[in-house]
Amino acid sequence: MTDETLGANGLIAPQLGTFVANLDHDDIPADIRSRACHLILDAVGIALASTRYDFAHRTLSALSSFGSGDGQVIGMGARLPLRDAVMLNGLLVHGLDYDDTHVAGVTHATAAAFPTALGMAADRRASGRDMLSAYIAGMEVSTRLASVARGGFHQVGYHPTGIIGVFAATLIASRLQGLSAAQMADAQGIALSMASGSMEFLQDGAWTKRMHPGWAGVGGITAAGMAKAGFVGPKAVYEGRFGLFPLYLHAAEQAEMDLSLATQNLGESWEINNVAIKPIPACHFTHACADAAMALRGKHGVMAEDIASIRALVPAGVHKTVCQPVETKQRPQNSYDAQFSIPWAVASGLVRGCFGLEELDALNDPALLAIAAKVTCGDYPDAPFPKYYSGDVIVTLRNGQTLSHREEINRGNPDRPLANAEIEAKFFETACTAVARSRAEHIRDAVLGLDGLANANSLAALLAGNPE
User: Fold this and answer.
1) For the MmgE/PrpD C-terminal domain, which residue ranges apply (predicted)?
2) Beta-carbon count within 10 A of 207 CB
3) pTM
């Protein structure tokens, strides 16, 4: 292993620890702090909406059996031990698969970073300013680490949100506990044994993907606490013989990875700007095809009964996630199947002109099922993946006419971003499914004013619905 491979300053973990330990809040540009607050706002709205679903209440029931504590659960008023509260809050943020995605890293960065920052900052009675800078530091680290793999984790069956999120959570928890850069390097080594997240849920719509960000938070808080107490972790966390990337990627994926991305331009450029907000409550890989189908319906007035067949083209790197197995993609067995289905996204766009939360609950709609059964998938030519999650829908009508629409740059992508005002509108759309508009407005003001908040515990209490 050469110095060039490891970077000019040696191993990756110490460089990341130094960055997180030394990042000064005032060195973070104001627009980055504002965007970060909007990413958090988006996450809060989704978490509140998730409280209406069975998966949230079953998880609360399970975690409550372990005892109570001071950790606050968003929208549910429950108080759990710190790590259990972080676990559940991560599940709520990620529960509807409506949360943000870092495009190059193909990871839901906020879902792990925000619950950890909120929980630790509230526990330590840290300021909103300290919470925000820790969140941003964690986001900058996790997005870069995920980018190293160039989408490779998905190809071998790992969910990068869980695999990478634990390192962001470790560094966030470390910063909020005042660990030194050297201790942060050790903490990352400890977290290496806690990185997890299987993609097996794709086979049967299991709920396990929802728990990955929160479990990353649990691991990160644990790793930071152990490092603070002097527990020793391995040094070559990411690049060692059994480090993260050699261990979790196969030879073909390792050949494509770029370790230099892990530390590239830290503190100079901000990956927060490359985090995409979802306009559709489903896997980001489905969005372009959903929008293409909506465009075809709107432009040509395509009627379901006139369609003979449909071909949806997506990047080769996403087929395993949203095109296979064909049986459950064409006929989803539950809402999670539908969120990871190109056929369902296309059918929703063509039949209903939208792909929202209602379409995830319409699994027995005969019109949707009939169209989904006509959708097959192919490779998008020269796909610019993972920079863009492109999609092309080609509809062949019964009269032989062919109609097509291509979305090269998926909506919400950093090159086609949602503005902060649009994020606020989405927040009210999601939050107000669970809370009154007046409370949602209070929450919005608190989150967007995070920089000036004296005590993060007041925000945690507000989000939970508990009086201080």
Assistant:
1) 281-450
2) 15
3) 0.89
